[in-house]
Amino acid sequence: MALLRRLVTLCTVLACSNVIAADVSTSGLSTSATASATGQVTPLSMFIPDAASRVNLFIGTTNGGHTFPGATIPHGMVKVGMDTDSPGNHAGYDANPIFNATGFSQLHDDGTGGAVPLSLFKLWPFTSCGKGNTFEECQTSIDGRKALRKVLHDGSPDDAAEPGYFSSNLSTNIRVELTSTRRTALHRYTFPKGTKTPRIVVDITNDGQQSSTDPEMELDPDTARVMGGAHFEASFGPGRYHAFTCVDFKGDGYDLGAPKEFGAWLGNFPVKQTVTITQLYTSFTDELGALFTFAPNPNGTTAILARVGVSFISPEQACANAEEEIPDFDFDVVRSTSRAQWSELLGRVQVDPSDVDPEIVDLFYSSMYRTHISPGDYTGENPRWNSTEPYYDSFYCNWDTYRTLYSFMALHDPATFARVVRGMINIQQHEGWLPECRGATAKHYIQGGSNGDPILAEFFVKFHEHAADLSVPADALYQALLADAELQPPNWDLQGRQANIWKSQGYIPSDVWERSGTNSKQVSRTLEYAFDDFTISQVAKVLGRTDDAKKYAQRSENFFNVWNPNVTFPGRKDITGFMQPRFVNGVFNFTDPRHCSIHDPLQSTCFLNAQNHDGFYEGSPIVYSQYVPHDTARLIQLQGGREKFVSRLNFIFDQDYFDSTDEPSQQIPFMYHYANQPGQSTQRSRQVIAEFYNTSVNGLPGNDDSGAMGSYVAFYLAGLYPLPATRQFLLSSPYFREISFKNPVLNTTTTIRANGFQGNPKSGTGGHVFVKSVKIDGKSWESNCFIEWDAFTSGSLIELELTSDINVPCGATSGTLPPSLSTGGYD
Ligand SMILES: *[C@@H]1O[C@H](CO)[C@@H](O)[C@H](O)[C@H]1NC(C)=O
Ligand SMILES: *[C@@H]1O[C@H](CO)[C@@H](O)[C@H](O)[C@H]1NC(C)=O
Ligand SMILES: *[C@@H]1O[C@H](CO)[C@@H](O)[C@H](O)[C@H]1NC(C)=O
Ligand SMILES: *[C@@H]1O[C@H](CO)[C@@H](O)[C@H](O)[C@H]1NC(C)=O
Ligand SMILES: *[C@@H]1O[C@H](CO)[C@@H](O)[C@H](O)[C@H]1NC(C)=O
Ligand SMILES: *[C@@H]1O[C@H](CO)[C@@H](O)[C@H](O)[C@H]1NC(C)=O
Ligand SMILES: *[C@@H]1O[C@H](CO)[C@@H](O)[C@H](O)[C@H]1NC(C)=O
Ligand SMILES: *[C@@H]1O[C@H](CO)[C@@H](O)[C@H](O)[C@H]1NC(C)=O
């Protein structure tokens, strides 16, 4: 209970939004959910008493996953972790032990592309320096100081991580441990026995891109406090940002006293007794910082704590953050508080692990964990304007996350979701448009449309009745959506849309070059704008703005304007009709449907690149020709009916056009639902998991994209797929006999129970996993293909009857198919 009280007070201090006072000491009790006659489920089954213990933070930490395995609280601003000299060190770390550690820095993103973001204010420990072990011999530069990690018998580096904590043993025999609060990191460096000169470097300038300018730094020779900052380059946009730090040291279990030696350094040259970098000739290199020699512990092991506050406002604020959040340098308390927050948050979703491969349980909680790293809660750290509203950052990018991340949050963490939405609305009120892609307070390039729209709409469609309680202003939310939809910003490549031509033309022509940015990817953008407008129509409908609802629903059908029925897949006459680039005069240009796929004869890439005039972003035309989440019925019609639609889906999988690494493919495995073949969706989605996702360090097929992939996998394992901004979820079977979602805002727990569960086929193929019938609170539910949000608001028991027959239909009538706009869905 002491721990718990601590957790609650700390959370008040840290303004963390939604810590439920779950009594950690009783969470070991396991009670089975029981359905009463009325179907109410009481209480939450605690199958997994400590969900945080099931998280593997190293999934996707080599080979391009770019996942962050360091320490953070849920949506923390500070994400403290190891940086390595590997090529793909976007989140700092690489699990391959051939790479050296170069420092332990305070800020990271998770799973991004672009240039290496953040990774700034690195610390580094030395046991000794050079032959003479003098201060001046310390190789302080990033190349001079780096060292390998110790390697375990199995060939992996001696690194360990769990939610809220990271540790590593370096080849120099120094042990490094890291933990954090929202804006402050706490490091512990344990030096080997006999160390006479424990030294620590503070590096002010080396961010992930080594992009710093105008560094400032001052150290205090008595207390060893270091205050400093610099300007750095944004990762995926044209801007720069200014960040600050404040570092303090303390002996762990002994009095550190004043540092024995101190000085600023420049490259590999520490200069004793200097206290600012202005005392050095700084024009020749941009590597700068502070170095200290501390007293060893005369009575035992020398362990030194470093508390590192960070701010985007000022070094003074970095100090204030640190003093407020970690007043007493108590590593164990900070660590256990972070851990308790994770355990409570992850424990809101409970899965029955019986008859399930433990790796699947780990994969589930690890994936769920990664939905709570970004965006980061930077409240109080917005340098551009003052506001009492929350400020979230690291939307990297909404294009990646809108599809699944926020819908997963809606199930168990609407309070955080509401805070993110409030922060986004506040950005729109000050900048004119919702954030699309953003990092370190700087705008980044848009990838698709204005994909803040589906995020706000997802919140409002599901939680409009609670919006006022959650301090989300409905009017302002709607105005923010309208701004995206109607007003063209001067820099539509950073926020908003090409609204003018979208309104006049109904698609983005491939031969109109508008001022600003990347005049490419016009077909993808057309499809994104169409879906964005659909989500606005759903909000308008909730608000009773019938005319707007109709207008935006009509605009959402504009995807049809880039459909060319006459393009045929090379060598496959039966696969006809594709999304294609179109000129302003209405004539279509041609892009090979294989473009950007692994079978593209030209081997083109579809990344953001102004030189590409092909029309497509991170997906081939054949993938984008499936990309109309709100009106698949119309798509089926365009493709020549259900049979053709299904054979096209099969072709996409069988010929490897399904691209597991990029988001435009994410819904495709579930699309058989719309052709009344939900068993095929169940099998395809399970095959995708079996083939591409696992708990190994390379267990991600592409970047995690700020949790986009994590939330996607969590949904697949839960047997659900979301349709953002609607009240429906596509339904499959969970990988568990039972999975339940506790929603603290609605105060409900919803359980999906798979009756007759017999485990999961390893390869994803076949098995007793197909949904034959559904009961909600004891009453039969007509569709095997979707369930309504109402089941989650009321806290229902959803019982699935399973079968081995893959050919089960959605149900008896056409009303049992998931909704589509053109067939009157969503009303
Ligand atoms: C690790 O650092 C050592 C010493 O600087 C260097 O020789 C080695 O090449 C580095 N490893 C990699 C993968 O860069
Ligand atoms: C590092 O070494 C310590 C013993 O000094 C050990 O307890 C720990 O498990 C090792 N590994 C990590 C990753 O901390
Ligand atoms: C070492 O231990 C002695 C005896 O317990 C104590 O008086 C002294 O303060 C300790 N030294 C440090 C630096 O903590
Ligand atoms: C925010 O308020 C503080 C304190 O009044 C002020 O110093 C600062 O300049 C303000 N920041 C902005 C961006 O307006
Ligand atoms: C497709 O071909 C038909 C028949 O030749 C023609 O009438 C129609 O205009 C063509 N459509 C487009 C978009 O090219
Ligand atoms: C038409 O498409 C081709 C092939 O992708 C491309 O090279 C060309 O630039 C396009 N024309 C225009 C005006 O966009
Ligand atoms: C794990 O997933 C990765 C990435 O998709 C894949 O390359 C690898 O083969 C998988 N490993 C196993 C053991 O399935
Ligand atoms: C939540 O529901 C439980 C059980 O129905 C009830 O005991 C509790 O008071 C409710 N809590 C809130 C905050 O409404």
From TrEMBL:
One of its GO terms (cellular component) is cytosol. Keywords: Hydrolase, Signal. Transmembrane segments: none annotated. It holds the Pfam family Glyco_hydro_92N. GO terms for molecular function: carbohydrate binding; peptide-N4-(N-acetyl-beta-glucosaminyl)asparagine amidase activity. Residues 317-803 form the Glycosyl hydrolase family domain. Residues 55-311 form the Glycosyl hydrolase family 92 N-terminal domain. GO terms for biological process: carbohydrate metabolic process; glycoprotein catabolic process. InterPro entries: 6-hairpin_glycosidase_sf (IPR008928), GH-type_carb-bd (IPR014718), GH92_a_mannosidase_put (IPR005887), GH92_N (IPR041371), Glyco_hydro_92 (IPR012939), PNGase (IPR050883). Residues 1-22 form the signal peptide. This is Glycoside hydrolase family 92 protein. It comes from Trametes coccinea (strain BRFM310) (Pycnoporus coccineus).
